[in-house]
Amino acid sequence: MRAVVKGRVGVFYLQGFLDGNNAPSFLTIEDIKATEELNIDMLLVSLKKVIFFNKNGLDVFVKLLTNVRNHQHITVGFCDYDHAKFNIINTFYKDGAGFSLFKSQEIAELFTASNKGESRTVLLYNEDPSQRSAMAIELFDYGHNPIMAQSKYEFEEKKKNPELYYAIIEDTNLGVYGQKVATRVTGNAIIYTISQFLDAEISDTFNLSYHQNSLNVGFRLFIFDAYKVISMNVHALNFFTKLASSAAEYNASICFVGLSFDKTPESFKNDLEDAGLMFFD
Q: Is 96 exposed, middle or buried (0-12, 13-18, 19+ CB in 10 A)?
C-alpha cells in the first residue's frame, strides 16, 4: 500500500480489520521506503473505512509514522474517525506517542504550511487547556482565525451557528509538531526539544514565528529540553541571547534543562545567565 498524496499531505487509506496479524501485510519494505522519501508536510493514516482495530495493529503504523517524523520533521497522525475511535486511541496511548489525531482530513489540512495564506475562521474545543492553546497557536501561525471555546457549554452554544465557521474542530489532539525543533505544550509552558551540536543552523530550524505567536497569546514559560545536546558554538550562543532579550520584553522566562557544559565553555553559561536564561539539571 502506498500513501496517496494530495498537495503536500500523504494519506494511507486503510479498510477492514487492523490487528497485529494483518497490519504488517498492508506495508511492504518498498512501501515504507517510498513513504520515507515523500516530499510532504504531513503523513496521515485514515481510519474512515476501518471496521475494527486494536493497539497491536495501530502500533505497526505508529512505528512507521514515528520514523518518518524523525527523518523528515513533519507532522504525522491518524484522521477520519468518530468519537468512539478517538476515545479508544487515547486509551491505547494515554501517555502520548508523539502523533496527532485529526477528526477529518479537512481539519488536518488546516495545520499544514501548504494551506498557509488562505485565512479560515474555525471554532475549536478540547477539554485539555494545553491542547486548546496548542491548536490555537498552530492555526494562528498558519494564518487562520481560531475561535477557542473555553468550556464545553460555550462550545456547544457556538456550534449552533455552524455557518460562521469554515470548520468546527473537536476530537482532535496535537502530538509533536512538524517542526525541525520538536515542540509541545504542557500546562502553561512551551517545551522545545533540541539535540546534538548547536550552531548557526538553530536559526533555521527554530520556528521564530511560532515562538512569537506563543508570546502574543500569553505564554510566559519556555523550556528547552537539552539533555541530548552535545555542545554549542558562539552562533548558537548569540541566537539564545537574542531570544532571551525578546522574551524579556514580555516578562517571559526561558529555561534550559539538562544542558551539560562538559564540551561547551563555561563562559557561555555565564553569558546566557546574564541575558536572563535559567539552567536546571
A: exposed
For 17-28, what is the mean pLDDT? Answer: 82
Q: Identify whether the C-beta of residue 194 lies closer than 8 Å to the C-beta of residue 224.
A: yes
Q: Are 53 and 16 contacting, i.e. CB atoms less than 8 angstroms apart?
A: no
188 touches 123 (CB < 8 A): no
- pLDDT of 132-173, one tens digit each? 888 888 888 788 999 999 999 999 999 999 999 999 999 999
Helix ranges (DSSP H) in the chain: 29-36, 55-72, 83-92, 105-109, 129-141, 152-158, 202-205, 208-216, 234-248, 266-275
CB atoms within 10 A of CB 161: 9
For residue 222, the tally of other CB atoms under 10 A from its CB is 21
Q: Concatenate the DSSP letters of all residues of 157-198 into one string.
A: HHTT-GGG-SEEE-S-B--S-SSSSEEEEETTEEEEEEEEEE
Q: Which helix (H) or strand (E) holds 53?
A: strand 42-53
Domains in the chain, please, with CATH? 4-169 (3.30.750.24), 182-280 (3.30.750.24)
- Cα three-residue angle 52-57-59, rounded to 5 degrees: 135
User: Is 139 within 8 Å of 111 (Cβ atoms)?
Assistant: yes
The whole-angstrom separation of Cα 134 and Cα 125 is 11
